[in-house]
Design goal:
With 595 residues, the chain is of the alpha+beta class. It folds into three domains: 14-128, Type VI secretion system, lipoprotein SciN (Immunoglobulin-like, Sandwich), CATH 2.60.40; 135-194, no CATH class; 203-588, no CATH class. It is 48% helix and 12% strand. The chain contains 17 helices and nine strands. It is globular and about 90 Å long. The strands form two sheets. It has a five-stranded mixed beta sheet, with no helix packed on it. The relative contact order is 0.11.
Length: 595
């Protein structure tokens, strides 16, 4: 999910800091994800250094620095997020002297010696060992693991305390009152409560929703500054790309379960339409009026207000899915007569819904691959800018970007994730019109999960097997479309475009995760879903709250140690943990924000 705001100015991939003669005495102050690279030119001619990122698809080489001849040096600060390919050229010879690819470490100092032996060569050396960029993550994972272990072991210790006469006698030494009996009675009450019938509400669905929302909050709070917790520059998947599709999938599952329950209670179609419309309008207004503006942005101005948005997309997706379920969803599941289509009855009985979804996906494919876009190749799916050998600099997003610019003008997202790496100049909104079509599709896959739960209620083996079958089918389809590559497939996996392969891939993962949580929480009862179940049952409150208050204390503060990920990661985890705690307190108070 896209962060609510970004820094006012994007950090360039490469920053030239100095160019001088002699030897380096003291380097510039390095920040997070930066390293110092020093070029020593021992040739008698001036050389030009160019670079490109290996994560940037067919990107043009960009000028890095000019190094003067005769033992002159030049230093640059480089990004350490992705592998860089460096190229040293001689203008006098019009030739490339050397080229190499390397992933540089955060905080490291590196030297490259450009010298002549039999031919020009480039030799590198490490002047200062880089930081272990993953050490903060390892420490955080260990601490979270210890905390989770303590919470998991605490109930077991309490049960042992209640059942062991030895421990009870130690705990109650010196007491002159009937504490033993009171405590034993309390323990019996706990055991009786634990053996009560489980509620019909699916803990796995609330847990899955809360898990995706918790990760979403962590990602929106910068994810510790790690690139793989943020959104992919264009094609490919990162942690930041997978949380919103999970949330949309859960919306589809919830729609089926909730509307079927209301239909069985005799709620009319007109009453359902009123409720659906009200919820949709509230979501749209929350997204446009509250999350679109902050007092920090200055006076309201239509010229910069963003029309698309996360809640706007969720609201529209919910509306379409609810209409499908209201008009073409069975109020009662028919008796299972012996038909040839019994193994796929949860699909066949809903054929009108499937027909609409197939038509929507056909519409997406036709517009995306066949719509003529001025000065761009038909069916272009790239990021534009310097990508694709710089041939299509103003074609960011192809048809998807063109449709959004035609409909919204400049009233959309100004800092797409491709802007920094691909140096694109066109605005592109990841919550645009065409992507919303595929958002409905992945929500419909979530509806399919809900239908499976309803059809095979009480037959858990069938539920898990069908989840697995759907995951395999969707996963194989995504692999075929993407050719199991990041950039080389028929339709690459791309969250910015919400491409078909992305939808299929995320649908596969969602079926697996929901099935796993269903088995652990609802079937076996090994886990109650804590702590994710708390934000999962107050998702609107947590999402709106973290978006509005995320840049205020105590959720965040002005960082002082920006040379590594330590403080950034702590701040991200701290802000996320506060919202989980708030959700827990609201859960204890029985407060649930519903619309």
């Amino acid at each position: 999910m896209e962060p609510r705001t970004l820094q006012a100015s994007l950090t360039l991939l490469i920053l030239v800091t100095s160019s001088y003669g002699g030897h380096l005495k003291s380097g510039p102050t390095l920040k997070m994800d930066q390293a110092l690279l020093i070029f020593h030119n021992q040739l008698a001619e001036e050389v030009q250094v160019f670079y490109t990122s290996d994560h940037c698809y067919k990107c043009l080489y960009q000028h890095l620095v000019t190094v003067k001849p005769n033992n002159n040096n030049a230093s640059v600060v480089i990004s350490t997020k992705f592998t860089l390919t460096m190229q040293v050229d001689s203008q006098s010879r019009n030739a490339t002297l050397c080229r190499w690819s390397q992933t540089y470490g955060e905080g490291g100092h590196y030297s490259v010696w450009i010298q002549m032996s039999e031919s020009a060569s480039c030799t590198d050396a490490v002047d200062k060992i880089p930081n272990n960029v993953y050490l903060p993550l390892l420490v955080a994972a260990l601490l979270l693991g210890v905390i989770a272990l303590l919470f998991a072991v605490a109930p077991y210790i309490f049960r042992r305390r209640c059942s062991s006469e030895c421990i009870k006698s130690i705990c109650c030494q010196g007491s002159q009152y009937s504490v033993d009996n009171d405590e034993a009675q309390a323990c019996e009450v706990e055991e009786e409560n634990a053996t009560k019938a489980k509620p019909t509400r699916l803990h796995s669905l609330d847990t899955f929703r809360g898990f995706s929302l918790t990760v979403m909050v962590f990602v929106n709070y910068s994810g510790g500054g790690y690139w793989f917790f943020q959104h992919a520059p264009w094609n490919g998947l990162t942690v930041g790309d997978i949380v919103m599709p999970w949330f949309v999938f859960i919306i589809g599952t919830s729609v089926v379960l909730a509307l079927r329950s209301m239909q069985r209670k005799g709620v009319s179609h007109l009453q359902l339409l009123r409720k659906i419309t009200w919820r949709t309008v509230v979501l749209l207004m929350l997204g446009f009026c509250f999350l679109n503006y902050s007092p920090r942005d200055g006076p309201l101005s239509w010229s910069w207000l963003r029309i698309p948005g996360v809640l706007q997309r969720l609201g529209f997706t919910y509306f379409v899915l609810s209409l499908l379920q209201t008009f073409w969803g069975h109020e009662e599941i028919p008796l299972r007569a012996h038909h040839w289509w019994n193994p796929v009855q949860d699909v066949v009985l809903y054929w009108p819904q499937w027909l609409i979804i197939v038509l929507l996906e056909t519409l997406w494919l036709c517009i995306t691959l066949l719509l003529p876009v001025p000065n761009c190749p038909t069916g272009y799916l790239g990021a534009g800018g310097i990508g694709d050998d710089g041939l299509y600099p103003n074609c960011t997003g192809g048809a998807a970007g063109y449709v959004d610019r035609w409909m919204f003008g400049d009233n959309m997202y100004r800092y797409p994730s491709c802007k920094e790496l691909y140096r694109s100049t066109q605005p592109f909104d990841p919550e645009g019109v065409l992507g919303t079509i595929n958002s409905v599709v992945i929500g419909f896959l979530g509806m399919q999960a809900g239908k499976i739960i309803i059809f095979y209620r009480g037959i858990n083996v069938h539920i898990l097997c069908r989840f697995l079958v759907w995951a395999v089918i969707l996963g194989i389809s995504a692999a075929i479309l993407s050719k199991c590559t990041r950039d080389g497939g028929f339709i690459p996996v791309n969250k910015n475009l919400w491409s078909l392969s992305f939808v299929l891939c995320m649908g596969s993962v969602s079926f697996l995760l929901l099935g796993g949580m269903y088995y652990v929480t609802d079937i076996k009862g090994w886990w109650g879903g804590q702590p994710f179940i708390y934000p999962g049952m107050n998702s609107i409150f947590v999402y709106v709250g973290h978006s509005l208050l995320g840049f205020y204390f105590p959720f965040s503060w002005e960082m002082r140690f920006q040379e590594s990920h330590w403080e950034q990661l702590f701040q991200s985890l701290w802000g996320t943990a506060l919202w989980v705690l708030i959700a827990y307190l609201l859960y204890r108070k029985k407060f649930f924000l519903k619309i």
